[in-house]
Amino acid sequence: MTRTWFITGTSSGFGRELTALLLARGERVAATARRPETLDDLAAEHGDRLWRAALDVTDTARQREVVDRAFAELGRIDVVVSNAGYGLFGAAEELSDEQIDRQVATNLTASVQLARAVVPHLRRQGGGRIFQIASVGGQIAFPAMSLYHATKWGVEGFWESTAPELAPFGIGVTIVEPGMARTNFGGGGAVFGAPLPEYADGPSGQLRRVVAGELPPLPTPGDPAKVAAAIVDSADRADAPLRLTLGSDAHALATAALRDRLAALEAGRELAFSTDADDVR
To answer: Highest taxon of the source (predicted)?
Structure first.
């Protein structure tokens, strides 16, 4: 059976890879992007199986309007992919108020509002799937990426809470946690705060210089096409896994971080119990 997918942020990166793969497999895609003309080549090849709309996901009213129109015109949408996002780099002190607001609006608030827009439709049609493209950066943290990590940890918490709310309606949720992949995330897709000399030689300054291409790059093992294929394959499963950790680096980093946090939690067990009221047994 041919499915219909709704995907945000399809002009590049994972969104573009997913759109191209799905169309090649004969699926139908409702693709949104700030510049939908970036999909002209796919439209020419696949015709009316590609539905397009211009969308800046930070415009909540517009996002709701596009979602409503997509469901109205396409009849049913089986899978929703919340993908739009970008990286903001710089020590917290180096970021402007506007950069902070834009990062939160794009990576976190827009994902929440997309969920609020699509869930009533999915519930009324009897179910569906939602994929949130997050990051292993929702499980770990690096210097110079504090606001990016705040948004990714935020979507993790949002979906961890929302997934059981939606399960009774047949709506499955999967948080996708890729590692470093060969997209434009650290290149043309990156935004930088204004550098302060006090941070230049510290860890945030070093990472900023790596991302900016002034120092040798970090290993980037992830293949965007393989990430897209893993997402599509997951959509074929009847049981939706809550998380898909994709990439050898993502798996190693998340494993180490979780083990460290568990060890620290166990080390503080006696203190934690000592703060209970005296009548607690």
So the answer is: Bacteria
